[in-house]
Design a protein that fits this description.
By secondary structure, the protein is an all-alpha fold. The protein contains 12 helices and 2 strands. The longest helix is centred in the C-terminal third of the chain and has 50 residues.
Length: 282
């Protein structure tokens, strides 16, 4: 208490071996005064501040080979289970790897808008169709969804490396859809919505799409097998997103293309009939 800390004699008389229940009395080496002589020496104290507010720092050092995000998640779960609450006027901030990861993620997402515009422009110029570019964009979003599902299925954390993997796989995952759409545009009947021609185009593209997917996933096999906690979220996100890309390219892409093409042909047919009626009436 304050009374004991403010009196040097009380500190010297501090009992180093408090008697426990059921133990014999032992008067040897029981007080602090047995360690030597004590005196009070004034010195300037330093009070830690952060953002102009006093702060108490609590640090934890984890074992090698363990991700800080995993330790932090377990720690926060334990605090929530125990119902830990700070007194009024106090709050907590998480530093270390968590803070650095948030800053790095923000820096990573800053140029995302510009990159999306550049990618959309390249797709429109390459495929010469806004509809085809929209389909590829949907495939990119779907591949990210598959990456997130893979992280959940394999119990990997959604951290900085997982976000990097999810963003990096988009350019690879949409390759299959681009192959299919390019083949469809080169086939006159398939581009007009002929189902039989579309089926043949997809069958011809299957070998290229599957081969690209397998070779890319094999390249990430060493990281998946190693089980390194640092690289595991990255490899799981990329492998999971790319592993699902053939389904998006060979099933989702042609289906959406036919739906859009059907609506387009229905609109043209309706316009053509109206023109014919007008001409006949004239």
């Amino acid at each position: 208490g304050d009374g004991d800390r403010g009196d040097l004699s009380q500190i010297e008389a501090l009992n180093l071996q408090p008697q426990q229940a059921g133990q014999d009395r032992n008067n040897d080496f029981r007080t602090v005064s047995a360690l030597g002589e004590f005196k009070v020496v004034p010195q300037l104290s330093q009070i830690a501040h952060r953002n102009e507010q006093r702060v108490n720092t609590v640090q934890g050092f984890i074992s090698a080979g363990v991700l800080p995000s995993k330790v932090l998640a377990d720690f926060q779960a334990a605090m929530e289970t125990q119902g830990f609450e700070l007194p009024p006027g106090y709050y907590t901030e998480i530093g270390g790897e968590q803070a650095e990861s948030n800053d790095a993620t923000g820096d990573l997402l800053d140029p995302l808008g510009l990159l999306l515009i550049a990618m959309a422009t390249a797709l429109v110029l390459s495929l010469q169709s806004f509809r085809s570019a929209a389909i590829v964009a949907m495939v990119g979003v779907g591949s990210v969804g598959m990456a997130l599902f893979s992280l959940w299925a394999f119990g990997s954390l959604l951290g900085f490396m997982a976000i990097v993997g999810a963003m990096g796989l988009i350019g690879i995952a949409i390759n299959g859809s681009i192959i299919v759409l390019s083949a469809v545009n080169e086939d006159k009947l398939a581009s007009q919505g002929n189902r039989k021609a579309m089926q043949e185009v997809v069958m011809r593209s299957t070998r290229h799409v599957v081969t690209t997917t397998i070779t890319t996933m094999v390249g990430f096999a060493p990281l998946l097998i190693s089980g390194d906690p640092f690289w595991n979220p990255l490899s799981v996100a990329i492998a999971g997103g790319i592993g699902g890309s053939p389904f998006l390219a060979l099933y989702f892409t042609p289906a959406v293309y036919l739906m859009m093409n059907k609506h387009n042909h229905a609109h043209k047919s309706s316009t053509s009939k109206q023109s014919s009626k007008t001409l006949h009436s004239t």
